[in-house]
Amino acid sequence: KQQQQQQQGQQELQRRSTSVPGGQEEAEDDDDFYFVMVDQDQDATYNVVFHNHLLQPTTVHAHGQLPATNMDGVPFLSALPTQPGAQTLYIYKVGVTAGTYFVHGHYGMQHGMGLSTPLVVRSSLPAAFPQQDVISSAADVVFFVEDVGAGMRGMPMRGQDAVFAGMQRAWQRELAAAEAAGGFDYGRCQPQALHTHTVYEHHIVNGKDAAHAPQYTLPAGAFVRLRFINGAASSNYHISLGGLQGYVVALDGQLAVAAASPLTAPLLLPVSEFWLAVAQRVDVLLQLPPESATGAASAVTLIATTEGTNQPQQQAAMVLATVAGTTPTAIPKLVNTSFGMMDMSLDQQLRSFVPPPDYSTPDTHTFVVNLTGGHGFNSINTRSYSMPPVTRSFCPNPYPLRVVAERKYCLDIKNFDEHAHSMHLHGHVLHLVEVDGQPLPHGGPGRDTVLIPAGCHSAKVCFYTDNPGTWAFHCHMIFHMAAGMMTTVEYVTDMQWDSNLQNRLNCIAEEAELRQLSAPTTAMPGMSMPMAPTTTTTPTDNNNSNNNTNNNNNNS
């Protein structure tokens, strides 16, 4: 059934560029790949009608864009799903949120079946931004990397449903073994795994695998703005620029400059390789080789390699070819080299071009967010929160992060799990201000998705509450999100805990009863269980918004 739905979905949802007023459609040399390209210098409203030609309900999330909360595309949290054969109007304001983004389904695990497409919003760069004249005239090329055909490491199973069921069973066994020994120790830092627990049959760039890598032809010596987008369900990638040196322009749509460069004379950060986590984007300015003395064409192969040190690496690629009279046929020469596990080294070398708010002041409130459990279960401060179709019915989150509008907040995130997690906050720009307790220069870079490596690594990300509503904060690795690695940021008018808490807990209990679950310690993990197993050793479970200076603790 899943294969049938996937085939029908692929037939109905071939990547097609969306025509919008003032927008521009581009597909370069590759007729099989399309993406949305919008030119918009000023803030403007776009009405976009999404038609659901799938055989199941769906929602659409414009990742990194900042719409109203009811246009965010999270099922039931934002709005009701769009039913098969129906259509939904989404309203976006673009221009201010210029940069590199992507649009994907947010219903269940549909994103992992390829329900996504790039979204590029182009606008003029600030006059003071380094190399702005060169960047503005550079060719735009999208590098959209995805994983296809999910499997579980060491297991014969294939398909997302089978993999998710396997993860549930693995977590149940791990939890049962721990409880037999006195309880699962949520406060113990698990050693970093040197592999990923999901593997994929294929990795593709712009819809094609490495054997049929997409090729784009550009003049010798041309400047290119490469827009790298990790649209994968679970895979982080090491990106190689084919031996050339490029310069980072933006992270997740936010302009970035070298952290070490002077504030009055910012410079771009040179790179020849970097990591790209699930759902992250990196824009790179690259100049192609000049024309040779003989006029022969040359080619540059851009390579994405999966992470891991004790498992076979897989690769996807794109070819940028220069032409002098004839179009060359460039065959990627891929070298299967292990780059280890992903780190945050790129982020630590960058800062936002637009200075962020000062989050070191006493009026900044901080939440402690511990990434716990395993395989995404019991994973946000030892709790899970899921929504349909993973659960049978929707329940409001009993333990949200409660915020007040027009204030500064930080999330102090520490990863106790053996696997990395790519954490995404909807509706806001995050500023990465600390890595492993070390402050980053000048407030760090802006992002909407932050990778927290395994092995008790930590990061502090901060945001300003300027977009009221209820917003999802979750791991973007699709099986972890389905397992309940999610919470919510909810705007309130005051910080007093309301009487709806018991109603929310009752809803969760009824949902558990529907699934014939008896107690948290024996429940099928990944459902909307608000409590951890009864015998535990936990890290600090801070459900309070803490003022760092005056210790004014408010219930969150």
Q: How would you portray this structure in words?
A:
This protein is mainly beta and 556 residues long. It has six helices and 35 strands. Strands 8, 10, 12, 14, 15, 16, 18 and 21 form an eight-stranded mixed beta sheet that branches. Strands 22, 24, 26, 27, 28, 30, 34 and 35 form an eight-stranded mixed beta sheet that branches. A five-stranded mixed beta sheet has the order 1-2-7-6-4, with no helix packed on it. A hairpin with a 6-residue loop joins strand 34 (544-547) and strand 35. The radius of gyration is 23 Å and the shape is globular. The two termini are 42 Å apart. Mean pLDDT is 83; it is low at 1-30, 324-328 and 516-556.
Task: Quickly describe the structure.
By secondary structure, the protein is mostly beta strands.
Please write out the topology.
Layout: H1 2-12, E1 23-26, E2 35-39, E3 44-51, E4 60-63, E5 87-94, E6 99-105, E7 116-122, H2 132-137, E8 139-152, H3 160-180, E9 184-185, E10 198-205, E11 215-218, E12 223-230, E13 237-240, E14 246-251, E15 254-258, E16 269-271, E17 273-276, E18 281-287, E19 299-306, E20 315-322, H4 345-348, E21 350-352, E22 364-371, E23 401-403, E24 408-415, E25 421-425, E26 430-435, E27 438-439, E28 446-447, E29 449-452, E30 458-464, E31 470-475, H5 478-483, E32 486-491, H6 500-514, E33 536-537, E34 544-547, E35 554-555
Parallel strand pairs: 2-7, 8-12, 9-33, 11-20, 22-24, 23-32
Antiparallel strand pairs: 1-2, 3-5, 4-6, 6-7, 8-10, 12-18, 13-17, 13-19, 14-15, 14-16, 14-18, 15-21, 19-20, 22-34, 24-30, 25-29, 25-31, 26-27, 26-28, 26-30, 31-32, 34-35
